[in-house]
Amino acid sequence: MSKLLRTLFGLFVVFALVASACGNDDDDAPGSEPAPAAPADEPDEPAPAPEDEDEPAPAPEPEDEDEPAPAPEPEDEGEPAPEPEEPSDPNIVELGGGAVIDIGECPDEWDNYAGVTDTEIRFGSSLPRSGALAGFGTIADGVGLYFDAVGPIEGRNVVMVARDDGYVPARTVTNVEEMIDVENLLGFAGILGSPNNLAVHDLLNENCIPQLFNLTGLPEWGDPTNYPWTTGALMSYETESRVWCQHIADEIGSGATAAVLALGNDAGEAWRVAFNECAAEHGIDVVDEIKHDPQADSVGADVINLAASNADVLVVASSGAFCPQAVATVASLPWDPMMLVANGCQSIALFWVPIGPLANGVRMVNTQKDVSDASLADDEWVQFVRSALEGQGIDPEAASHALGYIFGEVLHEVLLDAASMDGGINRTNLMRAMWQMDFDSRGALGNSPRRMDGANDSYMVEAGRMEELVVDADGARYVPVSDVISFEGETGTFGN
Fold it and tell me: Is residue 421 one of the residues assigned to a domain?
């Protein structure tokens, strides 16, 4: 039995070992499969990887790369692209508002640097040093004196060459033609008179010669599209007339009557036409008009004829000695109208001191400071001009030297701007600087700006103030009857 038990026990052990071996094989199978199981889970985690690939899908990043698609917009902005092309054409000079100078149209012998030497910048002018408007004959001298006072520009002295034309257009033409031939000029500055400037308008533009600061308010001077070489220096007669009309409407009202004494030339006609247009708009009845001879000795008889109208207002659309003549004649009559006189007759010393208290009550649109105005004795600009002229041996209240300082200040700014441009001071840069000027003038009432932008804004003087002349024991002075009225940027260009 023991042997049998031992045999059975041994078989049992063998079977137990075999069973144990089989059980271990079953455990190892799951133990070796976790590795495959992990890969089975990891492929599920890469599923986020596709989501990561989808993150580029929010891909404004590829779309951001498409953002250069707006790049066509700059290219579209460049479509009106004269801009890339313009610089390639050295003949075209931009003035603003689409107005340009085309140097290709200038004469073959034209010299952009004419009148500019190592030591000088030379300008010409033609003014009346004789006749009824002779009081304006020293304006060019005053411009030269201004530059003597402020000194050279880049080592060059500004020289003014002026000739007398007696306010006769034919003599202006002769003067200008001779000066072009013999004087070596950069351009002309400060020719006085509407018909005088019109007489040389085409000549100077066809020859690409600057015609700056025409001493007249003819609206035609604001036309850079057709006459890019010409600019004005005064408030447009059209703008001045409109201020007169508004003032009459404010002071007297609709139904006011007016009589007009107008210079018998282009200037007087521009004033007369503009005044009639705005008078109709304000209910003002123009009851009589007389155009007087620019070469007349006196307008006294014309004023007596106008007095028969008994109008509420007398408009003196004239200049020079004719202004005080008209006012003195009114003072001798029973007629007592409001007297509106053109701005060209502003100078107290030149026009109103000779008739004294008879000038009381004269009203005008003033745009600049008068050094003989007692109310401006403490003004910084007036003190500068008076002191400089006295130091140069000139009576500030004699003739019109002080007016020359007004225009000298503007020319100074224009030349400084031209000097800062590529190529420096020359004819084309002078016109660019002129048509694009922008500075506050010390010589202007209220230090109003002198600003232009080519065909967008073609008039240099667009602000003024209604003032009344008072002459008494305290001297002669202008008293404001309005604030400074500004049309800056509003008067546009000629014909628009």
Answer: yes
Nearest 5°: the CA angle 55, 56, 58 is 70
CA proximity to 287, closest of 244, 257, 330: 257
Is 71 a residue whose pLDDT tops 50? no
Amino acid at 456: N
Q: What is the mean predicted confidence (pLDDT) over 57-65?
A: 44
Q: Rounded distance, CA 480 to CA 188, Å?
A: 34
Taking the model in full, what pTM does it have? 0.81
Amino acid at 413: E
- Kind and range of the H or E element at 293? none
The H-or-E segment that residue 450 falls in is: strand 449-451
Evaluate if residue 467 carries a pLDDT over 70. Answer: yes
Q: By residue range, what is the domain housing residue 182?
A: 112-235+378-385+398-446
What is the domain-level CATH number for residue 166? 3.40.50.2300
Query: What is the 8-class DSSP label of residue 491?
Result: S
DSSP, res 348: I
Q: Specify which residues 192 forms β-bridges with.
A: 215
State the pLDDT confidence band at 26, using cuts at 50, 70 and 90. very low
> Is it the case that residue 383 has pLDDT exceeding 90?
yes
- Cβ partners under 8 Å of residue 197, min gap 6: 172, 191, 211, 214, 216, 218, 221, 230
238-242: which pairs have CB atoms within 8 A and are 24 or more residues apart? Answer: 238/270, 238/274, 238/491, 239/459, 239/462, 239/487, 239/491, 240/271, 240/274, 240/342, 240/343, 240/365, 240/464, 241/271, 241/274, 241/275, 241/277, 241/278, 241/317, 242/274, 242/278
474 within a domain of the structure (yes/no) = yes
* DSSP assignment letter at 481: S
Q: Note the pLDDT tens digit of each residue in 109-161.
A: 999 999 999 999 999 999 999 999 999 999 999 999 999 999 999 999 999 99
Q: pLDDT by residue (tens digit) across 93-111?
A: 999 999 999 999 999 999 9
The residues, any chain, with a CB within 8 Å of residue 28's CB and separated by 6 or more, are none
